[in-house]
Amino acid sequence: MQLLSAINLAHDFEYPLFTDINLSLNVHESMAIIGASGSGKSTLLHILSSLLEPKEGRVELFDENIYDLKKDALVHMRRNDIGMVFQSHYLFKGFSAYENLEVAAKLSNTKIEEEVLEGLGIKEIIHQKVTELSGGQQQRVSIARVLTKKPRLIFADEPTGNLDSETAFDVMKLFTHYIKENDAAMVLVTHEKSLAMQCDHVYKLVDMKLEKVK
Ligand SMILES: Nc1ncnc2c1ncn2[C@@H]1O[C@H](COP(=O)(O)OP(=O)(O)OP(=O)(O)O)[C@@H](O)[C@H]1O
Ligand SMILES: [Mg+2]
């Protein structure tokens, strides 16, 4: 079952960023996008996840052309089926880590899973205030918050950027486990090739094109 497909995407800001981007992702699959800083990885991820409209081409999520959807249907899809882990995380600062997860669970009518907290190594710090946590702990709480929503498609932008290599590896293992268990799929943007290579498909954004690496 195909969850994501991108057809002939092109985008530019002041100058052209990329053209002729075609890709697709099936259930239970993970895909990594690597490339130099400024090559447009985050921009591409925003387009794939419906946050930004491309200058050319189209994105289909769950077999729907997202630009044909009514506004309500798109909001519903974003809230229930899409999980975004941003390059800079946006936790509610006045709350504890746990309260941040509770908000996600309430909004999506799901529950917080011990397995996720354990897999991310945040069980011990879950009742601390967000402002008392290290950057890497905050990053893992924001991943837990996204997984608590139970999305079918995860878009993650440098989700392990603040983590040591061992913790990053554990986070990747958790993502892989999650997509198999929940009939989901993931698109990951990362600078780290060793993490990227753990995904089923790897692409590199270079010279305005997407090159297949794996
Ligand atoms: N909203 C915007 N308006 C104008 N230019 C933008 C906008 N967003 C990104 N850009 C430009 O597009 C280019 C690609 O940015 P993008 O954030 O996609 O790169 P990236 O590959 O994710 O880089 P990094 O690895 O540093 O995160 C950059 O030159 C950036 O300045
Ligand atoms: Mg980026």
Describe, in plain words, how this protein is organized in 3D:
With 214 residues, the protein is α/β, with parallel strands linked by helices. The chain has a domain at 2-87 and 152-212: P-loop containing nucleotide triphosphate hydrolases (Rossmann fold). The chain contains seven helices and ten strands. It has helices at residues 41-48, 71-80, 97-108, 114-119, 135-148, 165-181, 193-196, and strands at residues 2-12, 16-26, 30-35, 56-61, 64-65, 82-85, 153-157, 185-189, 201-206, 209-212. It has a six-stranded mixed sheet, with helices on both faces. Strands 2-1-4-5 form a four-stranded antiparallel sheet, covered by helices on one side. The mean pLDDT is 95.
Brief overview:
By secondary structure, this protein is α/β, with parallel strands linked by helices.
Strand and helix map with partners:
Layout: E1 2-12, E2 16-26, E3 30-35, H1 41-48, E4 56-61, E5 64-65, H2 71-80, E6 82-85, H3 97-108, H4 114-119, H5 135-148, E7 153-157, H6 165-181, E8 185-189, H7 193-196, E9 201-206, E10 209-212
Parallel strand pairs: 3-8, 3-9, 6-7, 7-8
Antiparallel strand pairs: 1-2, 1-4, 4-5, 9-10
Helix pairs in contact: 3-5
> Under the CATH scheme, which architecture of the domain at 2-87 and 152-212 would be assigned?
3-Layer(aba) Sandwich
Largest sheet data: 6 strands, mixed
The portion of residues forming beta strands comes to 25-35%
Please list the strands of the largest sheet in the order they lie side by side: 6-7-8-3-9-10
Low-confidence stretches: none
What would the average pLDDT be, to the nearest integer?
95
CATH class of the domain at 2-87 and 152-212: Alpha Beta
- What is the H level of CATH, i.e. the homologous superfamily of the domain at 2-87 and 152-212? P-loop containing nucleotide triphosphate hydrolases
* DSSP summary: helix tally: 7
Structural class: alpha/beta
Shape: globular
Question: N- to C-terminal separation?
Answer: 20 Å
The helix content, as a percent range, equals 25-40%
- List SSEs in N-to-C order: EEEHEEHEHHHEHEHEE
Find the count of extended strands (DSSP E, 2+ residues): 10
CATH topology of the domain at 2-87 and 152-212: Rossmann fold
Ligand roster: adenosine-5'-triphosphate, magnesium ion
What value does the Rg take, in angstroms? Answer: 17 Å
